[in-house]
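We were asked to recover a plausible sequence for a given structure. The inputs and outputs are reproduced exactly as logged, with field labels preserved.

PROBLEM: sequence recovery
POSITIONS: 155
GIVEN STRUCTURE:
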């Protein structure tokens, strides 16, 4: 297993450094950090909130951290990450705080987030850089499958 070192800074001493729950997990957990004196944040039905983590990190160039929903929260409470997967680029360095955009898909239930709750997962991914080359003709027309959204006939 390839290991990549990520430098992490707590922006608040109460913050929890991300961690994998089990050996072999692809994703590590991000934890909510609420302001001092705040017991919980309520995410109303069909609405979203930005949740602080209290941490910042430096990701090596050529990598990103993808922020994804936790499957248990999605299944049990209809909670997701709005811009899933969100991207934390290698240029978003210390002291920029990692925040998670949580969306409540439920039409009737309020979702409560408390300090220290696991709110999302992160996956470290290698990111190759694309080199864009302008072309003048239809050089790959033999590979054109045609159509766009829904063109395969599957709804």
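RECOVERED SEQUENCE:
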């Amino acid at each position: 297993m390839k290991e990549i070192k990520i430098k992490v800074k707590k922006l608040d001493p109460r913050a929890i450094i991300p961690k994998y729950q089990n050996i072999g997990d692809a994703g590590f957990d991000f934890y909510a950090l609420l302001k001092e004196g705040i017991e919980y944040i309520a995410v109303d039905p069909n609405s979203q909130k930005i949740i602080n983590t209290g941490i910042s990190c430096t990701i090596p160039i050529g990598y990103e951290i993808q922020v994804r929903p936790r499957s248990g929260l999605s299944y049990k409470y209809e909670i997701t990450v709005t811009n899933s997967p969100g991207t934390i680029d290698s240029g978003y360095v210390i002291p920029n705080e990692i925040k998670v955009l949580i969306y409540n898909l439920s039409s009737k239930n309020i979702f409560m987030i408390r300090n220290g709750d696991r709110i999302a997962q992160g996956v470290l991914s290698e990111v190759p850089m694309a080199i864009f080359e302008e072309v003048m003709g239809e050089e790959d027309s033999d590979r054109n499958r045609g159509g766009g959204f829904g063109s395969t006939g599957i709804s």
